[in-house]
Amino acid sequence: MSDKRMLIMPAEVVRKIDDNRGDMSQAEFIDFLIDGQLKEEVQDQEYATKEEVYSFKQDIKKLLRSFLDFFVSYGLELGKQSHKAEFEELSGKLEELESSLATEDKSKEARIKWK
After folding, report:
1. Model-level pTM?
2. Is 17 exposed, middle or buried (0-12, 13-18, 19+ CB in 10 A)?
3. What is the Cα–Cα distance from 34 to 115, expressed in whole angstroms?
4. How far apart are CA 36 and CA 42, in angstroms?
5. How many CA atoms, within 13 angstroms, populate the side-chain half-sphere of residue 9?
């Protein structure tokens, strides 16, 4: 049999143990907590904040817009004769994307249909 000892603890600490241990016994719960604190592998998980995620989203939108600008200007420099309606539609969508970036409207997304 295992050697057992008695540990005198304040009533408040025992109450916290009982409130949080679930189906474990008090001894199992304390052992679990000690093992969790003494593990060699300390995994520091870093999470992005809401502001960082939003900033990343805005930067990606700007990057996509610069790609679109590049490909439109590249196509025009090659001398490809595009239809005026298609060019105006693409310009309108680029302007809409730019205005959505300026107003920071989260619900708008630019959808460009390529032929």
Report:
1. 0.35
2. middle
3. 63
4. 10
5. 14
Residue indicated by tokens 């052992």: 31
Contacts 24+ apart (CB under 8 A), 78-87: 86/115
Q: Amino acid identity of 2?
A: S
Q: How far apart are CA 41 and CA 29, in angstroms?
A: 20
Give the tens place of pLDDT for each residue, 35-57. Answer: 888 876 656 667 888 888 999 99
Domain regions of the chain by residue span: 52-103
Distance CA 95, CA 77 (A): 21
Mean pLDDT in consecutive groups of 10 residues from the start of the chain, 115 residues: 84 92 90 83 73 91 88 71 70 78 57 56
